[in-house]
Amino acid sequence: MKNSPNLHDVVYSVLLTQIRFGAYRCAEKLPTIEETSAQLHVSVATARCAYLKLKEQGYISLSKNVGATVKANYTSQETEQFIQAFFSARRTAMTDLGKSLRPLFGNVQWVGLKSACSETLLAIEALAGAEHVAAPYAMLEHLNQKYSVLGNSLLMRLTRQTFLFLHAPFFSIKENLQYFDQFADYLPQVLALCRSKDWPALRAVMDRSIDKLSLALDRFYASRITPPSPEEEISFAWSSYQKSDQLCYSLAMELLISISRGIYPAGSLLPSQAELASQKGVSVSTVRRALSLLGSVGAIRSAQYVGTRVLPLHKATENSDFSNPALQRRLLDMAESLHIFALSCREVSLLTLSSPGSDMAGRLCGELKARKQWRRGEVLSYFLLDFLAQNAPYQAIRTVYSELRRQFFWAYALRGMEGSQAQINALYDPYFDALIGALEKEDASRFSAVVEELAVSELLRTVELLSQLGVPGANALLLPNAAGA
After folding, report:
1. For residues 126 and 303, what is the distance between their CA atoms, to the nearest angstrom?
2. 31: helix, coil or strand?
3. Which range is least confidently modeled, 60-74, 75-89, 313-327?
4. Fewest C-beta atoms under 10 Å: which of 66, 103, 155, 366?
5. 451 near 431, Cβ under 8 Å?
6. In 297-420, alpha helices (H)
């Protein structure tokens, strides 16, 4: 099991890239630690760690009275070499992410703006005229204002990660700000459409803006980046956990998936803590915390001198400890993942089914018919998410959906609150029939609309259950209607 980079290392990389790209030159001052904290939406402590690392590496000087000043003195040739090396190593991932932005975030942004209160619109308006917010950070602030109304912290972390990987380096090159300059015209137009409630026109304007960035990336690579990409390029990555050191959650999820798939069947014993630690490459204390979380989710029960026994699935809810803060946080992660899926699945489904040169609809239709015969209707959303995570045409979508898919397993604890298996199947059978019927007619639009209806319906039920359990944050999620209405 591997850690993803610490957040302060990510901030360090962003600042170092800006220095190497010439956004900040020798003897120029960086923003203050507090300004960087606000601009990147990280803690002051995280920003300070990044600045101290830049100082230790000799890139800046740092003093209480003067602040951070760039020490590195690069020639124009060196700056260009940095740019060429950086972007050639990310060519595939950046262009792929650019094309993934609209299916992943187009509807999200639209729903966010449609639901924005007057105070949020005023804040966006103030941003349009703010001279103190430097590019590209004005774009991140604008995205945060649009998304904050949705009440989804997981979405905000995903937004920041896409910004740090794509927007921050691309717009740190001054020549690329020509695309950013249109931002000043874009915001007043968006605000006017929001206030007039012209939602179709708003969606069209937003889609054009997102597509423009993808086209700009293509032109940038075609006209400027000349070196061939290395054999091993740098890929886009995202973790749905807030902290990179939360290995116990990843391990608990891995074990829970194994239990769900019958690798550790009900009644069997898990390997000992020492054996699990050796197998997974983690400490015994990490294993202990992971098993404690699985105990709170009703998946296992540990007994001294006996070991850790796997409990039956239908007993999960009665054996769950819903007062456990760690379980409450994981259940909210699951709800936020379902929220992102509900907001993006229609476009991702349509894009995936419309991919040329494949018999994806026929294959999916056959698999759905087989799944219906299993009489386990509650797995339908997971199956669809899994299908999209494997077959979406862009790697960034597959990366994001794979991470959302993992979080779905925390619904394990809610199994006993959804009624009998017959009641569950009666709820999901109409969705199976509608999805299969749409595929048989090769109606990708109808299929995608039904996927969205299913996801929104599950989101509504999940939030209601979590609210009944007193899970903090569940009521903060903005609940969309199907079809983005």
Report:
1. 60
2. coil
3. 313-327
4. 66
5. no
6. 325-353, 360-374, 380-391, 395-407
Digit-coded pLDDT (tens) for 117-143? 888 888 888 876 655 445 667 777 778
Kindly state the tokens that stand for 342. 């509900």
The answer to whether 164 and 157 have CB atoms below 8 angstroms apart is no
Express each pLDDT in 378-409 by its tens digit: 889 989 999 999 999 999 999 999 999 988 88
Predicted confidence (pLDDT) at residue 59 exceeds the cutoff of 90: yes
| Cis amide prior to 136 (ω within 30 degrees) | yes
What are 366-371's contacts with CB under 8 Å, separation 24+? 368/432, 368/435, 368/436, 368/439, 369/436, 371/432
Quote the Cα angle for 375-372-312, to 5°: 30
Question: How far is Cα 344 from Cα 352, in angstroms, rounded to an integer?
Answer: 12
pLDDT of residue 483: 46
**What span, in angstroms and rounded, lies between the C-alpha atoms of 207 and 218?**
17
Q: Which CB contacts under 8 angstroms, 24+ apart, belong to 47-51? A: 47/8, 47/11, 49/8, 49/11, 49/12, 50/8, 50/9, 50/11, 50/12, 50/15, 51/15
CA-nearest of 160, 162, 167 to 212 is 167
| Bridge partner residues of 62 (DSSP) | 68
Q: What is the mean pLDDT of residues 268-295?
A: 90
Q: How many residues does the chain have?
A: 485
pLDDT > 50? residue 156:
yes
* Unique residue bearing structure tokens 């009703």: 298
Distance of CA 252 to the CA centre of its chain: 20
Q: Which residues contact 20 (CB under 8 A, 6 or more apart)?
A: 72, 74, 79, 82, 83, 86
Strands 60-63 and 300-303, how do they pair?
unpaired
Residue with tokens 């901030």: 11
Are the CB atoms for 451 and 384 separated by under 8 Å? yes
Instruction: Tell whether the model's pLDDT for residue 244 goes beyond 50.
Output: no
Q: Is the pLDDT of residue 183 over 80?
A: no
Going by pLDDT thresholds of 50, 70 and 90, the confidence category of residue 275 is very high
CB 140 within 8 A of CB 40: yes
pLDDT of residue 21: 92
SS3 state at 282: coil
- H-run or E-run covering 68: strand 67-70
Does residue 67 sit in helix, strand or coil? strand
Residue 231's φ and ψ, nearest 5 degrees, are -60, -40
